[in-house]
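Input sequence (724 aa), recorded before submission:
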Amino acid sequence: MDLEALRNANFSLLNTAISDWGKVVKSLTTLEKQSRDDMKAKADKANWAGVNATVSREFISKTAGEFSDALTQGTSIHNILKDTYDELVGYRDKLKQALDDGFQKDKLSVYGEQGGGFRVVAAIHPEPPGTQEKAEALRNRVQDLLGQATTSDSTAARALKAIAEQADYGFSGAKHADRDSAADALQKADAMAMLAKDAKKMSPQELAEFQRTMATYKDDELFAAQFASKLGGKETLQFWNDLAEIHAGARGEELKQLQSIQKDLSMTLATATLSDADGMQDWKKKVLDEATTAFRSNPSDPLRPNGAMGYQVMSSLMHHGKYDAEFLDAYGKQLLKMDMAPAGQTGMGTNDLWKTGNVTDLVFGDDDGRDPMVGFMKALSHNPEAALETFDDKKVFEHVVESMRYTDRDGAVAHALEAAVTGYGDGEKSADIRPHSKAQVALMQDVMHAVAQPETGAKLVNKATGESFGDMAASYMPEISRSLAGTGSGAIFVTDSQNPEGLKPVDATRFLYEVSRDPMGRAAIIVGESVYTSSSLEAHMANPELFDGKSDLPINAIARNAGIIEGIVGHSVADAKIAGDLGAETAANDALKAKGDIVKSFLAAGVNVGSVALVPMGPGAAVTGAAASGFFGGIAGIAVDSLLNGQKVEGAADKALYVSGQTLNENMESTKLHTQENLAAAISKHGFTELTTAEGRELARVAVEQGWRDSDSMLEDVHARPAA
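Predicted structure, token format:
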């Protein structure tokens, strides 16, 4: 910025723009709140079918997200403009003051020159003593102010341009409180990209700085996109390959540092992929192009003649963060084509494909990073949309599930499947209840069918997969309950699932049976059943009009369903002779407490995370009213409390609920007591008058016993059972 431009600057137009953007932000704040609390909330609760249930709901959800992004982007632009205006006005005023002081006190005049320069001359002759020194000081002062104004102007322009480039269509989520923070993010990105150009030359101090910077800026869209774009796709892969090789065998503090860098770099790159900037388009293309390239840190190393493949390097950086769905789709299609290429039975051969050769350990953890499907599956577990899209291909689903038998990717695959069928990313917390789409229910049926297969299905359930399968079962308690109860039970087992009867009873039964062999899987089923049963009972006690008929019918159906599900669990444990084994009992108790603690914390906060299915706010205002009247933290919370605390209830013969080592009969008694207590609490809480508490207890007792007996018969029909 030259002297005359700043001295004579008129910032009225910039001030008008700030005022206009302030009005935009104010309007967007109102629109964002309306779209979230009104439009999206109503769409989530609507009992839609057909096209509305899929296209309209998804469109409204994405539209609400666009309003949120628009508010974020508008606020950032307003903040940067205001910050820049304040700074430039300040520099202009300081410049005028400096020029006035120079003339008034030291008789010095400052003139702008063509080309942007300026000169300082004495205004009187002969020059008083010390004039040259004073002229030099004024020259430095003016130059400093012009430099600061130029920096303010140019960095603001760069930041605004970067924000605008983040999204080709719609709006980005780039958020910055002022011009300085945006400029600093871009400057830091440039500096870190320069450091990463050659991992071999990074000093310990530079590596520590890289670690701190990634941890600070991993969620910053401007930083992430600028860093990745400046570094380049191929260079990103080379950097991580070299860093992993340099620090191979890391221990202690060095290992912790590398684990931190890997996590934060993964999250930074994930954030970067959300950008539509031209640089990121080039980055994504280059990563895909280099997927089969062999990356070697030292070409002359005889121990690693081949080097890690691009797929292996990139996937090792996908364990954390939510990567862009389109990028995951393109990357996954390429990777899966290669993973499915080996000849032989479906799912076989993939281990040999990736595990051959002496490749650098690319993951500073339990996994060695050789199988790129592990990292890709973990990326899918954080992006439910991408996960569902991937598994929607039947051939891909069958291949990936079958490959679990021959590889170490089973846990990662299970987490990806869980995200796909529940709609919640691994570790995600959300206050909204997302109804299962038809595609999700169809995939859940495929998962159940795979686990239900005689001889082979049970082998899919293990320590790495059990909890995810159990969470899936918990999330699908409404659909499972409808499946086991049969056609016509919709008025009792309420749900806003788009395909509530899309699960097959035989597969559901066998799935529950097999998953119950794993302690964490069993815990998830028990907690999920408990929450759904208690919530269903509360819904009908709070709103008798939900069922057009006698009140004892829904109570009987819900209690019988609890008996069936808990009966399947109990018989699975008994058939496997798990009961009585001290180690297994300890694992079961620990698992139940761990799962219960998690679910209880979510219930207390009114949060649904897919791992537990409350009665959704679907069929109409009646159920919505039930939810609003303490539904989330009410009887469901009491139910989980009784599971966690081993609560002793009246008539329990001093037996705590669900303690380990119980016989089948004792398990049935616990289920009866648990259901009775939940029903009694619901009757009392909502002042239900059609039944006395005693009548409700008797109804629950008889129904649970019937359901328990039915579970035994159902298992005999669909599953080979050990001889008594």
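Checked by second reader. The chain has a mean pLDDT of 82.
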